[in-house]
């Protein structure tokens, strides 16, 4: 099994969630970053000391990270050697695509996994160096799911 590298919670208030993690378990995180994907502005933060990381994401109503009905477990993230092949594999396995960042220039895909009530997020391993430089500059390479036939 390839190790997951993060779990994500969609939250309505990223500062509150960060403070609660710090108070409850001493979890430290990087400062939230403001991002834009398609029509949505959102904020995102990851724990320090990684993998596995905890990701918090605060998105607007109607976005893939809408938490207006309350905080929720959103996804478990895995690196993949090939986002298209990985996404197709999950669909064949009965996990429908809910959202893809690919049309927005971000190679990731979120697939619904009803058995856990959350999504599986595949992120192209080509983005790993950028992730590490931003969120864990001293971090080493993380494993990826090998999407090659027989991989």
Q: Short summary of the structure?
A:
By secondary structure, the chain is an alpha/beta fold.
Summarize the SSE layout with pairings:
Elements: E1 6-10, H1 14-25, E2 33-37, E3 40-46, E4 53-58, E5 72-80, H2 83-92, E6 97-100, E7 108-113, E8 118-124, H3 128-135, E9 144-145
Question: What is the CATH homology-level superfamily?
Answer: 2,3-Dihydroxybiphenyl 1,2-Dioxygenase, domain 1
Which residue ranges are poorly predicted, with pLDDT under 50 across at least 5 consecutive positions? none
Percent strand equals 25-35%
Which structural class do you get from the secondary structure elements?
Answer: alpha/beta
CATH class descriptor: Alpha Beta
Computed Rg = 15 Å
Terminal-residue CA separation: 11 Å
Overall morphology: globular
Q: What is the domain total for the residues?
A: 1
Note down, in words, how this protein is organized:
With 151 residues, this protein is α/β, with parallel strands linked by helices. It has one domain: 2,3-Dihydroxybiphenyl 1,2-Dioxygenase, domain 1. The chain is 20% helix and 34% strand. It has 3 helices and 9 strands, in the order βαββββαβββαβ. The protein has helices at residues 14-25, 83-92, 128-135, and strands at 6-10, 33-37, 40-46, 53-58, 72-80, 97-100, 108-113, 118-124, 144-145. Strands 1, 2, 3, 4, 5, 6, 7, 8 and 9 form a 9-stranded mixed β-sheet that branches. The protein is globular, with a radius of gyration of 15 Å. The mean pLDDT is 93.
């Amino acid at each position: 099994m390839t190790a997951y590298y993060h779990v994500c919670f969609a939250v309505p208030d990223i500062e509150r969630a960060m403070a609660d993690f710090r108070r409850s378990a001493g979890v430290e995180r990087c400062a939230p970053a403001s991002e834009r994907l398609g029509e949505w502005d959102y904020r995102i933060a990851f724990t320090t000391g990684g993998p596995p990381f905890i990701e918090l994401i605060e998105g607007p109503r109607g976005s893939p990270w809408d938490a207006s009905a309350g905080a929720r477990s959103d996804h478990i993230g895995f690196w993949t050697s090939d986002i298209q092949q990985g996404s197709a594999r999950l669909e064949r396995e009965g996990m429908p695509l809910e959202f893809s960042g690919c049309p927005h220039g971000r190679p990731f895909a979120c697939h619904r996994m009803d058995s856990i009530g959350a999504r599986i997020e595949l992120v192209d391993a080509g983005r790993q160096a950028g992730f590490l430089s931003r969120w864990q500059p001293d971090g080493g390479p993380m494993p990826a799911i090998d999407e090659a036939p027989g991989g």
